[in-house]
Amino acid sequence: MLRFTTNARGVKVIALWLLVPGAVLTPFLFWQSFWLGLLFCAVWLFLCLVCLPLRLSSFRGSVSLGEVRVSRGILFKTHRRIPTRFVTGVNRVRTPLLRAANCSFLIVYTSGTLLLLPAIGDDVADRLVHVLQGGAP
Amino acid sequence: MSEIRVQGRFHIVYVLQYIRYGLLLCLVPMLQALLRFDLPSLYTALRQDTVILISMGVFSLVIWRRVGFCLTDRALTLRFGLLFRQELTILPEQVAVVELDRPLFLRLMGCTRVRLYAASCASFGRVQCYLPRRHAAVLAECMLPVKSDSSLFAPTGAERIRFTMLSANLLTTAALVVFSARQTQEILGQNLVFDLGQLAMSNLERLEQLVELVLPAGVAWLFTLVFTLWGIALFWSLMATANFRVSRSGGVILSKGGRINHTECRVLASAVSYCDIRVTPAARLLRRYPVFLCAGSYTGADLPILVYSKGQEALLQALMPRFTGPQPVAGITQKRSWPQFLWKSGSLFLLCAALTAVSAWRLPDLTPLMVIPTLVSAALLAVSAEAWFTEGVRRNPNGTLAVCYTRFFTRHHLCVFTSDLSYTSWQTPFSETIARCTLWIHLPCRKRLRVRSIKRYEADRLKLVL
After folding, report:
1. If you measure CA to CA, which chain A residue comes closest to B445?
2. Which domains can be identified in chain A, with CATH numbers?
3. Residue A121 and residue A103 in contact, taking contact as beta carbons nearer than 8 Å
4. Cα–Cα distances in Å, from A36 out to A43, A51, B83?
């Protein structure tokens, strides 16, 4: 059985990604009203720096018996199960920041849906890609 | 070396789709003429429209000369594009469904609309082209060959009336939904809420008079519209279901029929993802349930493939040997969440009931009209309550998956054949305390089935790998 979870440094990079759309939107809200902009900044920072790391820290995954199992969430829990034999492709994304954090962002394609595996450590990601491409765990 | 069966260009009807865009462009000069509202502007607009149509005609003819197809005994190759050339090669084993449509206007021109659906979403998905009738028949025969078409199901007599009624019901509902959505969009576009609010603030009495004046006529027109649409749908359904036959030859399920519009659908039996038995209100009355198929990226046509009644499993098993009839799948309903099933329909019912009570108090003339939505929402509430007892999922002994879920007035009984599935279960803090979850089943056609409030351990126990 191959178990995997998120990497703390990778989670920080993902949170940084989420800060970007907020930074783009903020000037427009400050343009409308100073207090509205301030409120938006507070809410967005709370989402990026508290909620997202908390949710990603609850991320647990495993590959065993021909299934990828992933669970996440603290209040609202989600569990996913995908058969490995119907995985049609794995996309591995490594930005400069993710490379610096020794992490990868994996997108697993099946014929009906796709599965996002954010901030996975490089050593685990290598093994995971190997397994999802038909190798032994 | 593969042998070429047929090759050539698409039918000339192909150019119509580009001329259609030209017709839309023609509206712009006509709109300008309408705003100026004089004869010189009209002449200018007509000249401009002529130029636009001729240009689009020439452009579409140039495109038509560049596109084409080549069918060999191994593959079908389609060529598209003018500057950016695209060549799509489709192998017979990639195809799940071939659909041949011949509406009246295409029949007059000797053309057939061919749609090919892929067995897996990972490949081309859906492709549509217009071919001469003979070429389309050869293409269908090469992709999914049918050796004999001895019919398994042919609606005749009362069976045919039931089949027609069910199809009409579905078509009318679809037409009404589209019509209502467009009307709503138009009304919202005119900022109606603001106007009505202003009118209400300025003169409440006038608004009341307006409602009294307009509403009866509006409701009457609504009913007229419903019955007209019903009649049209019934007629078209009768025409579509005339000579309807379903058969199975080798590994292909063939359904064809239609009096004015001829349709033929060939489905590869091994690619069928699920068959869906829909319990609609009309089906409950007639005790005959329409059956729809989904195969690969094909999610089913407007017409059901056949009509099922209790005890006729053999008919469906002749088409799909692994079919298992609808069975109770809900399991243990103890501690199942009532609010999860009833909050939408219950809220709607309470709202309608409150409006009826208010109308009985303030506007008694309107009360009979308000009773209609109240009864409809009460029926919806009853269907939701039924879903509390019936919704569920279970593995059948033969490895297929039995799923039962309810959407609006329709209960769906699915027999899922494919093992290309994935599951997502979702728990709220409330459902976690009673160890239940909502299960989403992802299918190859990118459709998701939602089964509410099932036992968490049952969701975990569902086998993915058989």
Report:
1. A112
2. 2-132 (2.30.29)
3. yes
4. 11, 21, 50
Pair of tokens at residue B263? 């349709």
Q: Which of B453, B458, B450 is nearest to B436 (CA)?
A: B453
Q: Does residue B463 contact residue B346 with C-beta atoms inside 8 Å?
A: no
Q: Give the list of residues 6+ apart from residue B139 with CB closer than 8 angstroms, or none.
A: B6, B71, B76, B98, B114, B131
- Tell me, what amino acid is at B197? G
pTM, entire model: 0.81
Q: Quick: pLDDT tens for B149-172.
A: 677 777 766 566 666 766 766 666
Cβ of A111 within 8 Å of Cβ of B423? The answer is: no
Determine the distance in angstroms separating the CA of A86 from the nearest CA of chain B, rounded to an integer. Answer: 6
Per DSSP bridges, beta strands B126-132 and B151-153 are: unpaired
Dist CA A86 CA B237 (whole Å):
39
- Domain residue ranges in chain B: 1-75, 91-153+244-323, 157-241, 327-466
pLDDT digits (tens, 9 = 90+) for A42-51: 999 999 999 9
H or E, element range at A104 = strand A103-110
Chain centroid to Cα B330, Å, comes to 27
Nearest to B68 by CA among B112, B108, B107, B10: B10
Please report the pLDDT score of residue B158 as a whole number.
58
- What is the pLDDT confidence band of residue A76, given thresholds at 50, 70 and 90? very high
- The 10s digit of each residue's pLDDT in B294-311 is 998 888 777 788 888 888
Write out chain B residues lying below 8 Å of A110, CB-based: 420, 422, 442
Q: How much of chain B exceeds pLDDT 90, in percent? A: 37
> What is the complex's ipTM, to 2 decimals?
0.90
DSSP A51: I
Tell me which residue in A79, A80, A112 faces B420 most closely, judged by beta carbons. A112
Q: Which of B50-64, B217-231, B340-354 has the highest average model confidence (pLDDT)?
A: B340-354
